[in-house]
Design goal:
single chain, mainly alpha, globular
Amino acid sequence: MLATIRRLVEEQGRLSAAADTLRDDADLYASGLTSFAAVQLMLALEEAFDVEFPERMLNRRSFASIAAIASCIAELKPEEVA
């Protein structure tokens, strides 16, 4: 799961650093993630993991780091956790 999230962050995040150089808990917004890129990332995550983020997860905190995204995906789709 983390590899897929990291790939999507790299593709959609438009970060100043390569996603594979960031720690799982690194602040994606501090690395250049914009609100627009976060929406693009959310859509890509929904497609990749076949989930829909509920309204309660549509906030900056849910997309603040790779670890935060993984936590949201794990909550929505526990079978993805391996």
